[in-house]
Amino acid sequence: MATESKILETHVDIAHIETGHPGTEFDLDDAQQKRVIRRVDWRLLPMLGLMYSISLIDRTNLGLAYVAGMEEDLGLRIGSRYTVLVMIFFAAYLAFEIPSNLILPKVGPANWLSFLGISFGSILIGMGFTNSWKTMAVCRALLGCTYLITCWYTRYEVGKRLSIFWIMAIVLSGFAAIFAYALTLLKGTYGLNGWRWIFIIEGAITIGVCAIGWFVVVDFPAKDTTLPPAERQFIVDRINKDRGDAEEDTITLKRALEHLTDWKIYFWSFNLLAAILPGYAYSYFQPIILTGIGFTNTQSQLLSAPPYILAGILCYTSAWLSDKYRIRGPIIAVHQLLTVVGMLITAYGKSDAFRYFGVFLGLGSVQFGIPGVLAFQANNITCHSKRAISSATGLIGGAVGGMIAGAAFKSSELPYYPTGIWVTFAINMVSILLIVIMDIHMWRANKRARETGEKLQNIEGWYYTL
């Protein structure tokens, strides 16, 4: 899961920057600027999106494997075994997230992300051959890319790019259920049950994609040698004009500890926890919920896909609005509120159809939370070292959210999981409160800066994004 934080992160008057209007210091004309940005889009987003999508599918396919026979083969109905498998993945995630983010700039994105992905796929293949739930738990522990994206774009371009990147993951995750069902039809091939083929085939695909990624993934803007010098300088200049951090600053222990004193990064970490908790709950438990409220195993796998289409639409629409109006927190809060409403409908609806509508509303709303929070955080950070630390602490919050999902959605309470539903409700209400507190603080700071001429983050004309 360490892959996630490397692939997903990134008020001056940036209208001139984005449109290439006369008056900017860039040497390229308007048409050339647009071509360079589109070229960066095509080189950066598809491969990173594909790599992240594959990793997301790999680590959230446990619920699909569960209803495809893994429950019987490994005895996962006994005690809290399935809960342990869900939670143990996040232990290594918590331990290695910050070290991994510190390694990334040193060895380069292509090398590190490809290494992580190939290792991830290899372990996944091993999971397909496990014969004990304890062995499966060890594999899950071993499993346990925004940062690069946010380094290439200005602050109010990054929301749409993160959403496009995330939509790839959403849509592919939706169709992963159908793909998993197709793989279960291999049941009996070479004497292996269908759920084993889910892990084996998806692990092999992961290795292939990440091997290709080694040749495709680009470096940070100031170091990338694949762009002509003039185009590379254009990218660096526009980022420096927007937030002043196109070049990397050295990460030292003193600097890292200084960054960790900023209370806002812990608020964002909790916001990401609140966004990821229901997301993981749906990933791991949605097929089980659908089976429990009256659908067959096959139906539950196939019906897991359609809500992701709505999720993709809502995710991009909200990202477009947040970039256009330069506002993050309130839109995130609305999505969090709709998510818990959907989960309550799923738990307490009076008919299977109404509960399935709750899945649509909850899962459709939750997906914007992750790119939304990451863009919110990235927009208010102005140096590489703090961006790396904040990305890591944010994703640590996400790991805690995953652990809470595994613990709160207890197997003994399937298929309605009342404890998980109300824990999610409470955490999302706290997250909304934190967003309100942070937005009020930043609004006051912006107001004071405009009235007194104070330089926020030591950058002339820079303001917090609410």
Main features:
single chain; 466 residues; mainly alpha; 20 helices; 75% helix; disordered N terminus; membrane; transmembrane helix
Please describe what this structure looks like.
It is found in: Membrane. It holds the Pfam family MFS_1. There is one protein chain. With 466 residues, the protein is an all-alpha fold. It has one domain (2-458): MFS general substrate transporter like domains (Growth Hormone, Chain: A, Up-down Bundle), CATH 1.20.1250. Helix content is 75%, strand content 0%. It contains 20 helices and no strands. It has helices at residues 2-7, 15-19, 30-59, 62-74, 81-107, 109-127, 133-143, 146-150, 158-184, 194-216, 229-243, 253-259, 263-292, 297-303, 306-324, 329-348, 352-366, 369-379, 384-408, 418-452. Helix 9 runs antiparallel to helix 15 (306-324) and helix 13 packs parallel to helix 19 (384-408). It is globular and about 65 Å long. The chain starts with a helix and ends in a 14-residue tail after the last helix. Mean pLDDT is 76; it is low at 1-25.
